[in-house]
């Protein structure tokens, strides 16, 4: 189980942190993936573009290889059972704990004029999304790791308070590897839909935009760990600067291993030419993003098809959701006859 907020165009972070794993999981697991439109409402006050954005995120997931026939791919608000479980879990969520969540603190900083209760209880809604399908594996990026800890707490608290083992503990999942965190091109934080847009590569970016963004990315003034000053003195850097490490991380995502090794060797020798590295990275990204962009554009405009996908996805998700809600009600003693 996992989800993505329809707050803008998908970017490389969403792809490598989440969607790539959705696609890898779809042949091996029973999967529930959703577009988290209720979550979007915590930060989105103007909903005029919401419908377009929901369709776009749906289209982009499908363009990346997600097959709506293999998984339940749905829109969060089409599964109203989510709201019932959210209410139940709110009774297990402590306000003090929620206030300490780093993502809540970040949002308070970013939108001080709109610190709504939905923002505070975002982790509760997210736990409801996951526990509703009694999911155990949650393919997400590094930024979501802490929310999974909260979801595990609620699963445990529910089982302890009401008895039984209804909810298994969910874990962030990346096929045994550490969780992905795709850095922004300016080295200041992660790529994100709603922040840092000039330093984020979107799956909708045109070829020239991709090239421009990458050529502007920060590097280093030298040419590797041992570089020379204008006076000829040798400077040795102990640690690869973050901006350069970020570029290598991005290069590894789209370039063959030999190409990465060649640039690493140049870097170690102090002879790397960052302009060449960026050009290689830009072409790798263009070739990676272009087919996804073109496919997503076509799907996004096919509203009857997307409607079928959403209806089919919600129908599958509601079977699992209704079964869980029934069991939760029974465990809680909400059965009066
Ligand atoms: N940079 C990233 N690297 C790896 N994974 C990432 N994810 C997001 N950014 C990165 C993963 O993508 C999934 C969807 O998360 P989201 O909808 O919260 O995406 P976002 O880009 O973070 O969107 P917003 O709207 O801009 O959210 P905020 O304001 O929270 O940053 C998740 O699995 C996430 O881990």
Chart the SSEs and their pairings.
Layout: E1 2-4, H1 12-25, E2 32-35, H2 37-40, H3 50-63, E3 72-75, H4 81-90, H5 95-100, H6 102-110, H7 117-120, H8 122-131, E4 137-138, H9 145-162, E5 171-172, H10 207-215, E6 226-228, E7 234-236, H11 242-254, H12 257-269, H13 274-300, H14 303-332
The protein binds adenosine-5'-tetraphosphate.
Care to describe what's here?
This protein has helices spanning 12-25, 37-40, 50-63, 81-90, 95-100, 102-110, 117-120, 122-131, 145-162, 207-215, 242-254, 257-269, 274-300, 303-332; strands at residues 2-4, 32-35, 72-75, 137-138, 171-172, 226-228, 234-236. By secondary structure, it is mostly helical. Strands 1-2-3 form a 3-stranded parallel sheet. Strands 4-5 form a two-stranded parallel ribbon. Strand 4 (137-138), helix 9 (145-162) and strand 5 form a beta-alpha-beta unit. Helix 3 (50-63) packs across helix 13. The radius of gyration is 22 Å and the shape is globular. The model has no long low-confidence stretch (mean pLDDT 93). Bound molecules: adenosine-5'-tetraphosphate. Adenosine-5'-tetraphosphate is lined by residues 2, 4-5, 7, 13-14, 16-18, 140-141, 143-144, 180-182, 190-195. The site of adenosine-5'-tetraphosphate has 22 residues, from strand 1 and helix 1.
């Amino acid at each position: 189980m996992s989800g993505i907020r329809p707050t803008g165009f998908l970017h490389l972070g969403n792809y490598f942190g989440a969607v790539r794993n959705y696609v890898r999981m779809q042949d091996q697991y029973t999967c529930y993936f959703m577009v988290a439109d209720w979550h979007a409402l915590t930060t989105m006050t103007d909903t005029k573009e919401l419908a377009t954005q929901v369709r776009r995120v749906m289209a982009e997931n499908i363009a990346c290889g997600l097959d709506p026939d293999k998984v339940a791919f749905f829109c969060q608000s089409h599964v109203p059972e989510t709201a019932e479980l959210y209410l139940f879990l709110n009774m297990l969520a402590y306000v003090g704990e929620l206030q300490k969540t780093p993502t809540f603190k970040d949002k308070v900083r970013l939108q001080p004029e709109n610190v709504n209760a939905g923002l505070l209880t975002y982790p509760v809604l997210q736990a409801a999304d996951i526990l509703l399908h009694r999911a155990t594996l949650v393919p997400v990026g590094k930024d979501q790791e802490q929310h999974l800890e909260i979801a595990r707490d609620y699963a445990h608290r529910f089982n302890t308070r009401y008895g039984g083992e209804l909810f298994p503990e969910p874990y962030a999942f990346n096929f045994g590897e550490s969780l992905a965190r795709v850095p922004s091109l300016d080295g200041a934080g992660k790529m994100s839909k709603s922040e840092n847009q000039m330093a984020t590569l979107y799956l909708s970016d045109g070829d020239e935009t991709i090239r421009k963004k990458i050529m502007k990315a920060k590097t280093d003034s030298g040419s590797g760990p041992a570089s020379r000053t204008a006076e000829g003195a040798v400077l040795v850097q102990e640690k690869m600067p973050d901006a350069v490490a970020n570029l290598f991380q991005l290069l590894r995502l789209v370039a063959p291993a030999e190409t990465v090794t060649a640039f690493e060797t140049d870097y170690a020798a102090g002879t790397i030419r960052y302009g060449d590295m960026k050009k290689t990275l830009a072409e790798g990204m263009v070739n990676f993003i272009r087919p996804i962009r073109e496919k997503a554009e076509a799907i996004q405009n096919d509203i009857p098809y997307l409607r079928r996908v959403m209806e089919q996805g919600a129908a599958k998700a509601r079977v699992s959701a209704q079964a869980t809600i029934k069991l939760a009600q029974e465990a809680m003693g909400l059965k009066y006859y």
